[in-house]
Amino acid sequence: MVNPQFHRITRSDVAREAGTSVAVVSYVINNGPRPVAPATKQRVLDAIKKTGYRPNEIARALACGTTKTYGLVVPNISNPFISSMAHALQREAFANGQVLLLGDAGDSRQRELELINNLLHRQVDGLLYTSVDRHPYIELIQATGTPFVMLDRVDAAQQTCAIRVDERAAAFQATQHLIEHGHREIAIICGPLDMLNTQDRVNGWQDALQQAGLSVRHEWTFSADYTRPGGYQAAQQMLKGPLPQALFATNELQALGCLRAMAEHNLTAPRDLALVCFNGTVESEYNVPSLTTVRQPVDAMAKTAIEMLKNWDGVPTLREFDFSLQIGESCGCFIPKLIDLPL
């Protein structure tokens, strides 16, 4: 018997052990194209078990025209919302017999390009993709004929499949919630202004203010990266001037960074500044204070994205999902009542 520790077991080794040809071993492994006598088939199966042979699944998959793999390219897996989406996509892909290969661009557009090329060279069956700056390499993917689904808003002129929520409407609802609390001075911490989703969220904030007859004060627009440090730095800048009554942070991480900056100034939410944010995850529930946040239906979106790849027909399709506003403590809905204690 060949020791697999020192030698890569091949079909030739199996054929030698079973006393058959390599072709017969291939017929047994691939269940065709030619029939094999039951006794011979059993000898081959016994030889496979004895030698420890493992078929080259990649070679088999390529021969069948499928690699049973999807690629996922994301801006930064450390973002809780992105990691929650990746987890849901992995679960759905596995349930459909696919392996999900993760490509983390680390907020680098150059690395994003390299990851896409790498996954395309591996001949993945499909790509799921969110671009670092929302200016994706769509033409590159389309040129290969590889099915792909964008996980965020893209320019409609690019004619591709995408899943999304209406982020402008979501930002409108989040801001309107602050207005319903009676706040009239509402600032925003947003992402980089050249990004499409930033523009949607800023527009939704402005829509809500204008509908309520409130002024859009551009000095209360603070652009920053979608990170904790981004939110922290933006909040530090905001705290140098007159403090608004409320704040809409367009990302959960930004909101967490903002709370840190506020704490350094002995300020809290919602006592000193009411706060709502976008793209909350389970992290929002366990923060102190818990965050009022727009939540996307991650599980339903992941299921749909995998179905779109599985049933790919090349027809551009947009699937839009409802969002929800999860109420926490940061907006002022749940302010603990003070209890008079005996002295």
From TrEMBL:
Residue ranges annotated for the HTH lacI-type domain, each copy included: 9-64
One Pfam family here: LacI
InterPro entries from the UniProt entry: HTH_LacI, Lambda_DNA-bd_dom_sf, Peripla_BP/Lac1_sug-bd_dom, Peripla_BP_I
Record's signal peptide: none
An annotated Gene Ontology molecular function: transcription cis-regulatory region binding
Domain of life (superkingdom): Bacteria
SUPFAM superfamilies recorded: lambda repressor-like DNA-binding domains, Periplasmic binding protein-like I
UniProt keyword list: DNA-binding, Transcription, Transcription regulation
PANTHER family in alphabetical order: HTH-TYPE TRANSCRIPTIONAL REGULATOR GALS (PTHR30146:SF109), LACI-RELATED TRANSCRIPTIONAL REPRESSOR (PTHR30146)
The protein, known as: LacI family regulatory protein
Organism: Yersinia pekkanenii
